[in-house]
Write a structure and sequence with these properties.
Elements (H helix, E strand, L loop, with lengths): L1 H7 L3 H12 L19 H10 L9 H19 L4 H7 L1 H10 L5 H14 L8 H11 L50 H6 L1
Helix pairs in contact: 1-4, 2-7, 4-5, 5-6, 5-7, 6-8
Length: 197
């Protein structure tokens, strides 16, 4: 736990609290949804984390599972801040982003998880991410985002939440010649080329 804490700059008490909440300390725990090991990492996430952080192939290995869990906690903290990382860790980042974008409540299990862990690790959770929803929505309202074609979405789905760029404010289109490098002046001459001239 100390190694994971140092490597991913996550307090050891956070790792311990998540491990206790997720698996009760059982290295061989498998959730009904398939999450594995002490830190209850989903199989696809385990593969990504184990490759990215040079871990072994066994998700029940306590060392590697704790390292993967700490790495994932760090990713969720960096991505969602202290107000959302626990929810994203438990419900998954896509589900948490959906909550932020739509206001759809998080699962009861996740809300209980957040309340329990927030007090254990000493962070304050406000409104289960509603202020995070404003922060998340802010980037979606930024100028320059282009609406996707409605025909790309099956019936019942939409591209709402994506801002349409006003055509009068659209950036001018560059011709394809702007993408072709000039024949001269693109690279610095090598020292042996300079001497030979």
């Amino acid at each position: 736990m100390t190694e994971a804490s140092h490597r991913f700059a996550i307090p050891a008490r956070w790792i311990r609290a998540v491990m206790q909440a997720e698996s009760g300390g059982n290295a061989y725990a498998i959730s009904p949804r398939g999450a594995l090991g002490l830190m209850q990492i989903m199989p696809a996430t385990w593969v990504e984390l184990s490759v990215r952080h040079d871990l072994g192939i066994d998700p029940s290995d306590p060392h590697d599972n704790i390292m993967a869990g700490a790495a994932y906690l760090r990713e969720m903290l960096d991505r969602f801040g202290s107000e959302g990382f626990l929810a994203a860790y438990n419900a998954g980042p896509k589900r948490y982003e959906e909550h932020l974008a739509t206001g759809r409540p998080l699962p009861d299990e996740t809300q209980i998880y957040i309340a329990r862990l927030a007090s254990l690790i000493g962070i304050e959770q406000r409104n289960n991410g509603s202020s995070g929803a404003r922060r998340f929505a802010a980037w979606q309202q930024a100028p320059g985002l282009v609406e996707r074609s409605k025909s790309l979405f099956p019936k019942g789905n939409s591209a709402s939440g994506v801002r349409t760029m006003n055509s009068s404010k659209a950036a001018p289109k560059a011709g394809t010649t702007a993408l072709v490098p000039r024949a001269t002046g693109l690279f610095v001459r090598r020292s042996d080329e300079v001497r030979s001239r």
